[in-house]
Fold this protein.
Amino acid sequence: MDVLMDHIVLNVTNVEEEVEFYASLFGFIPERLELYHEGKVPFPSVRINSDTIIDLFPRKMWDRKYHGEKTEPNLNHFCLSISREDFERLCERLVELDVAIEQGPVERWGAHGTGVSIYFSDPEQNLIEIRYYERKNESSGCLLET
């Protein structure tokens, strides 16, 4: 069985801020944003790659279930795997955008064995893990300030 991640759904209170975050940091392309603003679709998305999107559900789509307040995070975390070179560039972008790395770089187990991960949150406190899989004797240049 060959399985691909299709999409992740995040409950968000500020669609615009989330779209801007994912577009600015990763370069993810917003999809259906204009249609969302026109009221023609219930939510927009941002495209991770040709196979995967993040759907951004506005308050009206989850408000009744949670009575208008988010008391828990939307999910524990999600993990995106990128190349070591992109990992280094992303670390630089995090600094440029003043996004705090909450944990890492640390070795973690994942879909392709042990990789190097960092963790940070988007504006609505959804925890994001970014990782690359390294070859022996390589180390990450993503440094944390102490």
The chain has a mean pLDDT of 85.
